[in-house]
Amino acid sequence: xxxxxxxxxVCALLFVVTTVNYIDRQVLGILAPTLQRELHWxxxxxxxxxxxxxxxxxxxxxxxxxxxxxxxxxxxxxxxVVAWSxxxxxxxxxxxxxxxxxxxxxxxxGESANFPGAIKAVAExxxxxxxxxxxxxxxxxxxxxxxxxxxxxxxxxxxxxWRWAFVATGGLGFLWLALWLALYRSPEAQPRLSAAxxxxxxxxxxxxxxxxxxxxxxxxxxxxxxxxxxxFMTDPIWWFYLYWLPKFLDADYGIKLSQLALPLVVVYxxxxxGSVAGGWLSGALMKRGWTVxxxxxxALLGMALAIVPTAxxxxxGSLWIAVALVSVAAAAHQGWSANIYTLASDxxxxxxxxxxxxxxxxxxxxxxxxxxxxxxxILDHNGNNYAPIFVVCGLAYVSAWIIIHxLAPTLQxxxxxxxPEPLPLEKMS
Length: 429
Fold this sequence. Notes:
By secondary structure, the chain is mostly helical. It has helices at 7-39, 43-71, 73-90, 97-111, 114-125, 128-160, 162-170, 172-183, 195-201, 215-219, 222-253, 261-287, 292-307, 319-347, 350-382, 387-407, 425-428; strands at 211-212, 419-420. It is built from 17 helices and 2 strands.
């Protein structure tokens, strides 16, 4: 049997931390109907609370992408996981709307390191024709976290109280941290990595050595704006599923905390398959001889078209028809997301990947902040009618695909003049 390379151990670590990341951020969404009744939040009030996560998540993306490019993935991830785990546990001591808002803000700041760090690690550890698959695998952790959370959190909350749900899930990050520090090094510094596998990882055309690429130079590239548009227009839809889907099921179908597990598990199991399949698809097309541009764009368009029917989710008339529409849309979103992330490593050198993902993540979180605040106000205004919100969800991806194609018609690598800078701290230690 062919032995898997060590790079897949790294991918497994990224999958687990992404799972923990999504467990921590989704606990509030699962408990939302319970907390809303206990704390007397309006839809607008709840929208404002969850928007604080994305507000600081957006700011964090701008800072964290550049910071990870400087300190390296190993140290950066360690600091981030400690920060977000403490913030997740901090929800347990919140007593007011302001307290929950502060905890969400700190959680968003810490969790903003996950995707820039993971994409940077994939760019360091995988050749281009494997990056979308590796990204799809670790990105499946978002759905695994979303599956685990409704299975575990309601039981903890109903047995021990909702505060213990935040304490128990927040502690998971510290367990992962021990594995990360023991197993992760950069490829050149990893003694468990064979020379043959290192050669495979570095088999693409060589890139310039460490270099400083200013943000303004990145922002001047159409390729950067293609990633920005892809994130700004579609990330808010995923935030909507994460934070509002339990409330939609409660409002339209009377699904309470003890009944949430099955419909949510169905949605995110299907989404998990979509994450891996979407990442695999473009890589498989490339192995058949398709260009990077044709393969990525075809995968993205397929996902965008699969999402259109979700515009009818609020008019389904049946719980399981609504769940089926949202499940397909969530799966296609994950396949879309895996390929959008990979666009950054297709068009930019490794040294700039985390910065570009950081800028794109800022745009996506900013869009999420706007969408969440708007959602609460729309629902308060129209009596909890989700129809106009689902129409936006259904049409956002096709619109984004068209703009991406205009901005980056061939996915040509960005032309960046770079200036040398000192090696990352990780390399100097």
